[in-house]
């Protein structure tokens, strides 16, 4: 999309160039990706060979040590060509940072083969359970929405042992789970977010980690100043992992706009759609909404990167504002693309049409827990406003303290991860 590639502070230009060089291949496979309901093996090999699934892997385990903007901007650019590929780059690729936040023995185990691996997460337990046994836990049952399950080397299970508030992160190797084909959906089909089943696997306690500890802020392992720009193993992780979705969402909407513009640029039987005032007006309004979405995207990237480089935890107000902005970004993208589909008419609803594919995928992305407007608005209002500061009807004033950040993503439930 013309003018869309503004500079994102902290994003590595070499990584972005690698994504741009491969994006045409992923776009060419987008129909196959949707039809097969998984990324093609060739795409996964390209992602691994280019280091695009290792962007968030910690340097201590062989990772490149990139900051958060590199991950999310790479996902955005990939999603323009193939939204499912963008999702896997940003959301699944972000799980490498989470794997590095496991207790040392567990992290050494999962990274024993190096960072060139796929880490899937399983947060939505259908009937999955964890039972304490001597020396550790027995894991059994089924989990849902495990993106890139067909290609995963490790699954990071989010599960509790009796008390839902006391959750553990439990890594299982791919050979310890069965991938089941339950992913028959109308949008984001290519993410392969399948069910997994575990048949009574023993996991030593030393290889599990408290979820709250894995997400908490921490000091550098040597107790001194951080030796590298990598901060994803030190800052409180939840605002970062919950915000990975904004790259794929924005990129998907931008890809839809490009597909729509290409449609209208063609001379359809002499009709010259781009010369028709309703088409020009609709395209202009959708472009304006995407421009606003990009401003929110850049603001979220800048705030998270600034807090990360400073090793600073976000205040409750900042975390709630970021949740608000990522949810509103998704709203703007959905409105923009909905208008494009209306402009294109019936022709935009054929299964193989690129605009139709991006529209289906965007609606599925926008249903993610971390983009829920009602939940995000409630958290923001609790952090920003109080009755005594509001000054009566129509008034509002800031407060200090209050809301917890919105939970979801790898730490949430009921969503593709």
TrEMBL record:
Record field: compositional bias (Gly residues): 391-400, 408-417
Segments of this protein annotated with the region Disordered: 391-417
Residue ranges of every copy of the Acyl-CoA dehydrogenase C-terminal domain listed in the record: 247-372
InterPro entries: Acyl-CoA_dehydrogenase, Acyl-CoA_DH_C, Acyl-CoA_Oxase/DH_mid-dom_sf, AcylCo_DH-like_C, AcylCoA_DH/ox_N, AcylCoA_DH/ox_N_sf, AcylCoA_DH/oxidase_NM_dom_sf
Coiled-coil region: none
Keywords (A to Z) from UniProt: Oxidoreductase
Record family assignment: Belongs to the HpaH/HsaA monooxygenase family.
Name of the protein this chain belongs to: Uncharacterized protein
Species: Streptomyces glaucosporus
